[in-house]
Description:
98 residues; mainly alpha; 4 helices
Amino acid sequence: MDLSWMIIIVGAFLAAGYFFYSASEKRIEALENRVRQVEKLLKQSIQGMELKEPDVNDELRELLHKGKMVKAVNRTRQEFGWSLLEAKQYVDELKAGK
């Protein structure tokens, strides 16, 4: 195959990849904006409402009391489906009494 054809094919793949990436980025940005809007509406709607503490918090406090921080974080991830960082922050707040 001629070198110029290879350059054309590689260029076409790069252009297609760029367009796909650009479209994906725009879609992700739009979804992030929608999530922010929903979070804002949720915060507005729950102002003044008393929120019930999750039942798993008693179990997590017991694990923390026994010094089993890792198990508490793992149990939090299992219960809520959160990332490791989110679960760790939640358990830290629970430990601090917030």
